[in-house]
C-alpha cells in the first residue's frame, strides 16, 4: 500500500504543479524519498513537529495548494487532532491526511505505533471524510480520486505487504461500497486488509455477501442496508477499536433505519496493542483471526 500510494502521488505531481507533500521526519518510512528528490520545492519537511505540520498544511491549502500530509496514524491524528480540527476542518480546507501504520498489522512496533483509534477520531470531525483502501490496487484508484477532492480527507494505510483482492476493473467512488462477493445468508462489512480474511474463508454451507466499505465517511447507506435487508444478518470486521469505528457507524445506521437484523462485530475490544513479530499472532490474540470470523458467522446463523 505504501509503495502504491507513493508511486501514484509521484505520477500525479507530474500533471499537478500545485501538489505538495508535507512530512514530519518520516520520509524514508513513508517512501517519499523519490518525491522529495524530484520535487524538491514541493516537499516540505517539518521534522518531528506534528502540530506545526498540520498548521503548515492548512496554510498551503488556504493558498490554493493540493496538500498531502504524510505521517504515521499514531502521530496524525494521534498527536495533532486539535490542529486538524481548528486549522483544517473548521476552515474546510483540502488537506489529505495520510495515516500510515494503521491497526495491529504494525506488529513489531508495538502499542505506541499501532493506531487503533484513528477512524473514530476522524469520523467525529465535521467536514472530514474518512477512507481506508482494501489493498494496493484500491490505494491507487483511491489516491487518484482523493487528489481531486476539495474536502478535508483522511486515508488510512497499513505498514506490511498485504494480499491483493480489489477487482482491477472496479473504480473507486467517494461514498460508495463495493460488493466483492454476493450471498444471501450473512452480510460481512469491513475495510482494509483484514477484510481479505473473509474472502478466503473455507465455508461451503453459508453464502456470504462480502462488502468493502472503504468509504467509511461518507458511508454507503443504500448498499449496506439493501444487503442487510436481504440477509437479515450482519458482521462488521475491522482492525480498530470497536468503539467509534465502522461497527458503531453501521449499528447506528441499522437502528435509524428501523431494520430488524442479527448484528455482531469483530474488532479490538477496549484494549491497547502490543508487540509481535507476526502481526497475525495479534489477530489471534485479540479475536480478529479467520477462526474468530467463522465463530461469529456460526453465531449469526444459529437460531438463538
Automatic annotation (TrEMBL):
Keywords: Thiamine pyrophosphate. Its cofactor is thiamine diphosphate. InterPro entries: PDH/Transketolase, THDP-binding, Transketo_C/PFOR_II, Transketolase-like_Pyr-bd, Transketolase_C. CDD domains: TPP_PYR_DXS_TK_like. Residues 1-164 form the Transketolase-like pyrimidine-binding domain. Signal peptide: none annotated. Belongs to the transketolase family. This is Transketolase-like pyrimidine-binding domain-containing protein.
Amino acid at each position: 500500500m505504501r509503495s502504491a500510494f507513493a508511486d501514484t502521488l509521484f505520477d500525479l505531481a507530474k500533471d499537478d504543479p500545485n501538489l505538495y507533500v508535507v512530512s514530519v521526519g518520516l520520509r524514508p518510512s513513508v517512501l517519499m524519498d523519490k518525491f522529495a528528490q524530484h520535487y524538491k520545492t514541493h516537499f516540505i519537511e517539518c521534522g518531528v513537529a506534528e502540530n506545526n505540520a498540520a498548521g503548515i498544511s492548512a496554510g498551503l491549502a488556504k493558498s490554493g495548494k493540493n496538500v498531502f500530509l504524510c505521517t504515521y496514524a499514531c502521530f496524525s491524528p494521534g498527536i495533532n487532532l486539535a490542529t486538524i480540527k481548528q486549522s483544517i476542518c473548521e476552515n474546510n480546507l483540502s488537506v489529505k491526511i495520510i495515516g500510515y501504520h494503521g491497526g495491529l498489522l504494525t506488529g513489531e512496533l508495538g502499542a505506541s505505533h499501532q493506531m487503533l483509534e484513528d477512524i473514530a477520531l476522524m469520523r467525529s470531525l465535521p467536514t472530514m471524510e474518512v477512507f481506508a483502501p482494501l489493498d494496493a490496487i484500491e490505494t491507487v484508484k483511491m489516491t487518484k480520486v482523493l487528489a481531486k477532492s476539495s474536502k478535508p480527507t483522511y486515508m488510512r494505510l497499513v505498514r506490511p505487504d498485504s494480499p491483493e483482492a480489489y477487482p482491477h476493473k472496479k473504480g473507486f467512488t467517494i461514498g460508495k461500497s463495493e460488493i466483492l462477493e454476493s450471498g444471501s445468508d450473512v452480510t460481512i462489512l469491513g475495510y482494509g486488509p483484514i477484510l481479505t480474511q473473509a474472502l478466503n474463508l473455507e465455508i461451503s454451507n453459508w453464502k456470504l455477501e462480502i462488502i468493502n466499505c472503504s468509504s467509511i465517511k461518507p458511508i454507503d447507506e443504500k448498499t449496506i442496508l439493501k444487503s442487510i435487508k436481504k440477509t437479515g444478518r450482519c458482521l462488521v470486521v475491522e482492525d480498530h477499536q470497536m468503539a467509534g469505528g465502522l461497527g458503531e457507524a453501521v449499528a447506528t445506521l441499522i437502528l435509524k433505519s428501523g431494520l430488524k437484523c442479527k448484528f455482531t462485530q469483530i474488532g479490538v475490544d477496549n484494549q491497547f496493542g502490543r508487540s509481535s513479530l507476526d502481526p497475525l499472532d495479534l489477530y489471534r490474540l485479540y479475536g480478529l483471526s479467520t477462526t474468530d470470523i467463522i465463530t461469529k458467522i456460526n453465531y449469526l446463523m444459529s437460531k438463538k
